[in-house]
Every structure is written in structure tokens, then in C-alpha cells.
Amino acid sequence: MEVASPGPRIVLARPLYAGNVGQAARAMANTGLDELVLVNPQFKSDADLRRMAKGASTIIEGMRRVTSLAEALSDCNLVIACSARPRGWKAWKTVHPEEAAALL
Question: What does the buried/exposed string (b/e) look like for 23-36 if buried means 16 or more CB atoms within 10 Å of the residue's CB?
Fold first, then answer.
């Protein structure tokens, strides 16, 4: 019997604002994604998270919190990172969104 491959995982590293995490969870729910992992969240209260995650309570309830990026990605076969700013790391291949989508 073939084991089903897990779907995409959304990992947020050191998120500062609970509301942003809630908005991400809501966007995930709208697109059919359901696995959210937070690496060392910097906010203290989940109140804004829950308020902004309206309609995504199952994602919030299943969300994991871990202490390292290595822990969040330990069982992943492919990792694609996104940033709002241009990056120039020579150790990592940079791809455009279309190429990342094809990889997924």
C-alpha cells in the first residue's frame, strides 16, 4: 500500500504579530492548506491570532510551535522560502514564483 505524501506546510519563522499569523491561517483555509508551524513566535498573546483567523479555527487548533527551523523542516523533502526583499544568498538557488510553483 502506498503512503500518501503530506501536503505543503507553511512555516512562519519568528513571527512578530499574532494578527499576521491569524491572517496567514485565514489565507491558508481559503486555499486548502492546513498545516501551519510557528518557529519561536515573538508575540505573547494569541487573542489577535484567533480574532484574525476567523473561519480558520481548525488550522489554529492544529498549529504547532517549535523552537528551531531545523525542527520545523526536519521531515520535508523540498523547502521553498519566500521574502518580501531581494536576497542574494549564493548557497541557495533563487527562483521566480513560476519556477517554484512548478517544483511544488
Answer: bbbbebbeeebbeb
The model carries a pTM of 0.83
Instruction: Using alpha carbons, select from 1, 6, 3, 10 the residue that is nearest to residue 60.
Output: 10
Enter the CATH code of domain 9-76.
Answer: 3.40.1280.10
Each residue's pLDDT tens digit, 17-30: 999 999 999 999 99
Whole-angstrom distance, CA of residue 98 vs CA of residue 39: 27
| DSSP letter string, 16-67 | S-HHHHHHHHHHHHHHT--EEEEES---S-SHHHHHHTTT-HHHHHH-EEES
Q: Phi, psi at residue 93, to the nearest 5°?
A: -75, 135
